[in-house]
From TrEMBL:
<feature type="domain" description="Ionotropic glutamate receptor C-terminal">
    <location>
        <begin position="32"/>
        <end position="380"/>
    </location>
</feature>
<dbReference type="InterPro" id="IPR001320">
    <property type="entry name" value="Iontro_rcpt_C"/>
</dbReference>
<dbReference type="InterPro" id="IPR019594">
    <property type="entry name" value="Glu/Gly-bd"/>
</dbReference>
<keyword id="KW-1133">Transmembrane helix</keyword>
<keyword id="KW-0325">Glycoprotein</keyword>
<keyword id="KW-0812">Transmembrane</keyword>
<keyword id="KW-0407">Ion channel</keyword>
<dbReference type="InterPro" id="IPR015683">
    <property type="entry name" value="Ionotropic_Glu_rcpt"/>
</dbReference>
<keyword id="KW-1071">Ligand-gated ion channel</keyword>
<dbReference type="GO" id="GO:0016020">
    <property type="term" value="C:membrane"/>
</dbReference>
<keyword id="KW-0472">Membrane</keyword>
<dbReference type="Pfam" id="PF00060">
    <property type="entry name" value="Lig_chan"/>
</dbReference>
<feature type="transmembrane region" description="Helical">
    <location>
        <begin position="155"/>
        <end position="173"/>
    </location>
</feature>
<dbReference type="GO" id="GO:0015276">
    <property type="term" value="F:ligand-gated monoatomic ion channel activity"/>
</dbReference>
<feature type="transmembrane region" description="Helical">
    <location>
        <begin position="212"/>
        <end position="237"/>
    </location>
</feature>
<keyword id="KW-0813">Transport</keyword>
<keyword id="KW-0675">Receptor</keyword>
């Protein structure tokens, strides 16, 4: 029923306004207002030579109830372009009204103490608040290279280099030893790997230093393998415990209490310096100069930072965005209240216009027509499945399992064990070489004595 009333009001005013600048206007004793507007979805949008949107429908209803006609004028900048950011729209529209170039200003205008000194505001036609806009959390998935995650990259490098070192030492021990074994070079170099997947055969004999080194190598790998499997199980368990999509915070208090996710606000937002929380946020925003001039800039920043940045946004603009872009989520917590209104010139004519429109707004609110009007423009672009913050858990719950990749320091005992094995094997190898040298010298000396 309310939707039909909305359409009825708009159609009725379309008939009246069609005579707004003709003989009908001259004969009727209705005041005519020139209105400065700034385009912003879904409030005011260009539709060919005409305009459409929430504010266009609203001003049509108010004109019908308050008995006035109007003409809409674009609040272009001096360079001929539409104002983009909120501060720019506010400055242009209110500036035109203050200079009395236009009677009324129309856009997504918020009531502020500073602006109220220069213009009249109507009764608020809508109430919202400053809210948090963020990327919609996604369920965590096990990454494709999950088998590499349990160990730190430096530890993986150490393991690979250790295996290569053991292979090279075995090759050296086999070739430059007392028995001088003649295994293939590739066979010796791959022994650190093949010793775990196949049994050593008789045709691949090893010298004593090589067998000793291989024993220490197996102990080194066994210790690391056990640690790896334990950490892999911890990783899988921690990821499973976070399989449900989670929010890093749900309130402004939680937002300011963390440092992992950065945030920004729109240029011109009114923060109360007497409120502890808002004072803390203002200090952060000023120190980082984390202000954006237009909502599209904030949206791009949120999307590019992949969850590491959120924006404080005008609640109504955020609601319209999340209805059309399914990537984003708007949290319910409000930092402060925002009242949306229409501005009139600070003159007797402007005061009468604002008073008349305020009475009409009260009537529309009482009849529930403004609720239906907002639903018309905010819901018509809805293509997303409705999701709220209640559908997500907080990410800092006590049930979370903290996971950290293993560092080199975590396997220090195994590293020391391998180092000891290398030293012992090297000592035995050197001892065998010295013995071999002495035996050769003794043999040579015996041969010389025999020849004499």
């Amino acid at each position: 029923m309310c939707c039909k009333l909305v359409e009825l009001y708009v159609i009725l005013f379309s008939f009246i306004s069609s005579f707004g600048t003709g003989d009908f206007h001259d004969r009727m004793d209705f005041p005519h207002y020139n209105i400065s507007i700034a385009e912003v979805e879904p409030y005011i949008m260009k539709d060919g030579p005409l305009y459409k949107g929430y504010m266009v429908d609203l001003i049509a209803m108010l004109a019908n109830l308050s008995n006035f006609t109007f003409t809409l004028h674009d609040a272009f900048n001096e360079d001929g372009r539409q104002p983009t950011g909120y501060s720019e729209r506010l400055g242009n529209v209110i500036g035109h009204v203050v200079s009395q170039s236009f009677d009324i200003g129309l856009s997504d205008l918020m009531i502020t103490e500073e602006a109220s000194r220069a213009v009249y505001f109507t009764r608020p036609f809508s109430i919202s608040g400053a809210r948090i806009l963020m990327l919609k959390p996604r369920p965590r998935k096990l990454i494709s290279l999950m088998l590499l995650v349990p160990l730190d990259p430096e530890l993986w490098t150490l393991l690979v280099c250790s295996g290569m070192l053991v292979g090279v030492l075995i090759c050296v021990f086999n070739r430059f030893s007392r028995t001088a074994l003649k295994n293939g070079v590739l066979e010796d170099l791959t022994i650190p790997v093949t010793c775990f997947i196949s049994r050593m055969k008789d045709d691949k004999p090893l010298t004593t230093p090589s067998r000793l080194l291989l024993a220490f190598w197996r102990a080194f790998v066994l210790i690391n393998a056990c640690s790896y499997l334990a950490n892999l199980a911890s990783y899988i368990f921690s990821e499973n415990s976070r399989s449900q999509a989670e929010l890093p915070f749900k309130t402004f208090s939680d937002l300011t209490s963390q440092s992992r996710v950065s945030y920004g606000g729109w240029l011109g937002m009114q923060l109360n310096t007497h409120d502890t929380l808002q004072q803390k946020m203002l200090k952060y925003l000023n120190s980082q100069y984390s202000f954006y001039t237009d909502l599209s800039v904030a949206v791009e920043e949120i999307a590019s930072k992949n969850g590491m940045y959120v924006a404080i946004v005008d609640g109504q603009a955020g609601e319209y965005l999340v209805n059309s872009d399914c990537r984003f989520l708007l949290l319910k917590d409000e930092l402060y209240t925002i009242a949306y209104s229409i501005v009139c010139g600070k003159t007797e004519r402007g005061r009468k216009a604002c008073d008349a429109m305020s009475d009409a707004i009260i009537h529309l609110q009482t009849e529930g027509i403004l609720v239906e009007l907002k639903r018309k423009w905010w819901s018509q672009q809805t293509s997303c499945h409705h999701v709220s913050e209640e559908d997500f858990e907080m990410s800092h719950g006590a049930h979370m399992v903290k996971f950290e990749p293993m560092q080199i320091a975590d396997v220090a005992v195994a590293c020391i064990l391998l180092f000891v094995g290398v030293c012992i094997a090297a000592c035995i190898w050197v001892t065998q070489l010295l013995r071999r040298k002495r035996q050769m010298e003794h043999t040579d000396h015996s041969n010389e004595m025999d020849s004499v």
